[in-house]
Amino acid sequence: MRLAIYRATLGEAFGRKIVLWGWIASALLVGLFGLGLAFLYDRVRQDDSLTTLAQRVLVGGILTILGLYVGSFLSAFLAMMLAAGSVSTEIDSGVLQAVVVRPQPRWRWYLERWFGLVTMAVVYVVVMTLAILLVAKLVSGYEPGSLFGLLAILALQVTLLVTVGMLLSCRLSSVATGVVLFLYFGIAWMGGFIGWIGGLAEKPELTTIGTVVSLVAPSDALWKAASSYAIPLGMPMGSTGQADLPFLSTLAPSPWFLGWAGLLTLGLLALGIRAFSRRDL
User: Fold this and answer.
1) What CA–CA distances, in Å, run from 14 to 11, 18, 58, 100, 124?
2) Is the CB of residue 181 less than 8 Å from the CB of residue 80?
């Protein structure tokens, strides 16, 4: 049966109700975001200190990007939860002894498992992002500068995290994988914050540290790259070319960095296949 492991992976996630509870929590988040944005944006329009339309658009845009930031975090967290026990749980339960080698080789099982988890993570982040943008559009008329660029980079972010999680799960238990994966995600965020501080304080050594961390753990840098596409065309963000905010970037992402993130994901996928092929079942 073709793609049997892929379908089984989707069915397992729905059976464990991870996806169901994820969607319920996301619906609540989008609802709260809509209420909060409507209230805050109404206050902004009544604020006499914001005299120009550009200033009001700026405030509404920042609020929307904050909502997208939270949505990106939840998507990353779901991707990590899905990947944490993706391999180790199957090995510990003994299910793989009856599946791999015959009728399926190990590499195929791993790829189908990876594809199933990536599918769920990507669908989640795309739907979550579109829901937030729809609410922002209805409330404040907000439109991102490039919807395709925003969604593509967010999809790459969750794909990277799923890939790292599956690689770790080949060697570690589910709990250990979850802890290490969350630390990996946290280090990426800390590296981005250090880089932002370095740029703000004009400290090249801090900027270098942030750059190195973003190459090893690019999840936070990928969010910042996506946020640059979330900013509407012509939205005023200052004349310096860089926003004074640690959670977004106004600079267009480097094609070299995006290419590196894609190659890193493929390389980690290859390492995961190799590690799984040598793992005792």
Assistant:
1) 5, 6, 40, 23, 13
2) yes
Count the domains in the chain.
1
User: Shortest CA distance to 72 belongs to which of 142, 149, 128?
Assistant: 128
Q: Is 249 helix (H, G, I), strand (E, B) or coil?
A: coil
Least reliable range by pLDDT among 52-56, 203-207, 277-281: 52-56
What is the distance between the alpha carbons of residues 226 and 156, in angstroms, rounded to a whole number? 10
CB-CB contact of 72 with 223 (8 Å): yes
Task: Name the helix (H) or strand (E) containing 221.
Answer: helix 219-230
Render pLDDT for 213-264 as a digit per residue (tens, 0 to 9): 999 999 999 999 998 898 876 665 544 444 456 778 877 888 999 999 999 9
CA–CA distance, 273 with 275 (Å, rounded to integer): 6
Do the beta carbons of residue 232 and residue 144 sit within 8 Å? Answer: yes
Instruction: Kindly report the three-state secondary structure assignment for every residue of 144-194.
Output: CCCHHHHHHHHHHHHHHHHHHHHHHHCCCCHHHHHHHHHHHHHHHHHHHHH
- C-alpha torsion sign, points 143, 147, 149, 155: positive
Structure tokens at 266: 């493929």
Q: Length of the chain in residues, anyone?
A: 281
Instruction: State pLDDT tens for residues 142-192.
Output: 888 889 999 999 999 999 999 999 999 888 888 899 899 999 999 999 998
26 lies in which domain range? 4-277
Specify the DSSP class assigned to residue 100: B
Residue 269: its H or E element: helix 255-277
Closest listed residue to residue 178, CA positions, set 45, 256, 78, 94? 78
Q: Could you give the residue ranges of the DSSP H alpha helices within 16-146? A: 18-46, 53-84, 88-93, 106-140
